[in-house]
Write a structure and sequence with these properties.
Blueprint lengths: L1 H25 L4 H18 L5 E2 L12 E3 L4 E6 L4 H13 L8 E6 L9 H8 L11 E2 L1 H10 L2 H14 L9 H4 L6 E12 L3 E6 L2 H7 L7 H12 L7 E4 L2 E4 L20 E4 H4 L4 H20 L3 E4 L4 E4 L8 E7 L3 E11 L7 E16 L2 E14 L4 E2 L3 H11 L2 H24 L10 E12 L14 H4 L2 H5 L2
Parallel strand pairs: 3-4, 4-5
Antiparallel strand pairs: 1-2, 2-3, 6-16, 6-18, 7-9, 7-10, 8-9, 11-12, 12-15, 13-14, 14-15, 15-16, 16-17
Helix pairs in contact: 1-5, 1-6, 2-6, 3-4
């Protein structure tokens, strides 16, 4: 039966993952652990039905206590290769200390290798302090628990979980296919990834936070440092760029903190500044790489703020604003296959009462950062944002509007959005380069799109053809909404 084939294949691959992680740990290599967070996120989504499960470490560097969470199901997951009771106790300590038990009803500790034969419930209860419940027999999982879930899963869910697992295990040799021995004779083609080359200064600067600032922060959680700094600046009548991160009591930035007039001088202790090579800092360990990615994101936020592109924290996206608040549209001319005009913001009015705004629509994009060998890239995922009011607050109808527009767009349109955003980033780079004196704090620069050559060509003649849409038409929101 097909279901038995799926179950057997799942069992073999999940065991393969376990042995891969064990071998990597023995060699002191921890990249597999980091990748496994995303792998487990997808598997648990399919097998447990936690559709809202997401990787918290992609939203905040080194999220305390847990790695994955589904806010709707109120479940949290810690993914670890360490199976001893000490790791479980530490996870629970962080879970309680950061009040995560108020946000999530249950906590699962998933062991990537194999859990111990038994754990002390009394030791765990002591860490819970009566504020949450954790069962060592039910809430510590490993590959055997996943196999149990897989055995009970509906065929389509098991197939989805298996596809996800295979996608992450491509690098593990599981046998030679025919094409490995006899490569296809058809010509290859090139693929364009949604990645652009990213460049940043060769040096970054680290300085210890001032004693006055540390005293004001008090016993607040580490994740609230930016709030403390904002309050500190308001009291002192100061404003600072957003291009910094706080890590282990230090301020990290690309701004030269040795300069007397650097924008963060009132936040740091004099004489504590150190200069580091950016390329060395980001490769120290996974924690420093996460911090460095956060610095890249905040530096991008600082850079795009000048271009009237705002970071929207609720959606994790950058949104285009009108060049001036009173403008009803923002159009950008760009060079694609030919010169075209792109509408990145539009304000639509009620047809029955033109004095009332019906909708404000913004082109938006999410950005993530990836290191491939010694090269850095920024991924760009285009989307749309819908707002109301003069402060461009998220519309309550955003979900329905975004769902509608996503159903109307095809791959060609999304690709056009990506190519436009990449071209626009390159254009503002050129503006900085040729402006008088140049920009001294536009730390990020953007290069070419990443093109992958040698991909097997696909026979597309039998596919249903997508409608041909010009770049101009793809950019017109009125046509999307029939306005």
């Amino acid at each position: 039966m097909k279901i038995l084939d799926l179950q057997n294949e799942f069992r073999e691959l999940i065991a393969q993952l376990r042995h891969e992680v064990e071998a990597a740990s023995a060699m002191g290599q921890f990249d597999a652990h980091k990748v496994s967070e995303n792998l487990m996120c997808g598997l648990l989504r399919e097998l447990c039905g936690w559709s809202g499960l997401r990787n918290l470490n992609r939203e905040q560097a080194n999220f305390p206590g847990i790695d994955l969470a589904d806010d709707t199901r109120r479940v949290a997951v810690q993914v670890t290769a360490t199976a001893d009771i000490g790791k479980v106790k530490y996870t629970l300590e962080q879970f309680v200390r950061h009040d995560l038990h108020q946000r999530y009803d249950s906590l699962i500790v998933y062991v990537l290798t194999a859990k111990q034969g038994s754990y002390s419930q009394a030791a765990v209860d002591g860490m819970c302090e009566g504020r949450c419940e954790f069962s060592v027999s039910k809430d510590i999982w490993d590959y055997k628990d996943l196999c149990t879930l897989a055995a009970d899963a509906e065929p389509h869910k098991l197939q989805a979980a298996l596809n996800h697992l295979k996608a992450y295990l491509r690098g593990i040799p599981i046998g030679l296919a025919d094409e490995d021995i006899d490569p296809p004779s058809s010509p290859t083609e090139s693929l364009t990834a949604n990645l652009v080359e990213l460049y940043f200064p060769s040096a970054l600067y680290i300085a210890r936070l001032s004693d006055a600032l540390v005293d004001q922060h008090g016993k607040r959680k580490p994740g609230l440092w930016r709030k403390t700094i904002r309050e500190f600046n308001q009291e002192n009548g100061s404003a600072i760029p957003s291009a910094y991160v706080i890590h282990s009591g230090n301020l990290v930035t690309f701004f030269d903190l040795t300069e007397q007039n650097n924008p963060y001088r009132h936040l740091i202790e004099p004489g504590t500044t150190e200069e580091h090579r950016a390329g060395d800092y980001c490769t120290i360990d996974d924690d420093h790489e996460r911090v460095f990615k956060s610095l890249l994101r905040f530096s991008l936020q600082h850079r795009l703020f000048k271009e009237r592109v705002r970071w929207e924290n609720d959606t994790g996206e950058f949104i285009f604003l009108p060049l001036e608040d009173g403008h009803n549209q923002r159009e950008v001319i760009w060079q694609g296959e030919k010169k075209a005009k792109r509408n990145v913001f539009s304000r639509h009015f009620n047809k029955k009462d033109p004095s009332k705004v019906f909708m404000q629509k913004h082109l938006s994009f999410a950005a993530d950062f990836l290191r491939l060998d010694d090269h850095w890239f920024m991924s760009i995922t285009p989307s749309w944002f819908f707002s109301y009011g003069i402060n461009f607050e998220k519309s309550g109808f955003s979900h329905e509007s975004l769902g509608w527009i996503k159903r109307q767009e095809n791959n060609q349109q999304v690709m056009n959005h990506f190519r436009f955003i990449a071209a626009w980033l390159s254009a503002i780079d050129d503006e900085d380069l040729f402006s008088a004196g140049g920009s001294t704090d536009s730390f990020l620069s953007f290069g070419s799109l990443l093109t992958l050559s040698g991909a097997p060509s696909l026979e597309e003649s039998g596919w249903r053809a997508l409608p041909t849409i010009s770049e101009e038409d793809a950019a017109q929101p009125g046509k999307m909404f029939g306005l």
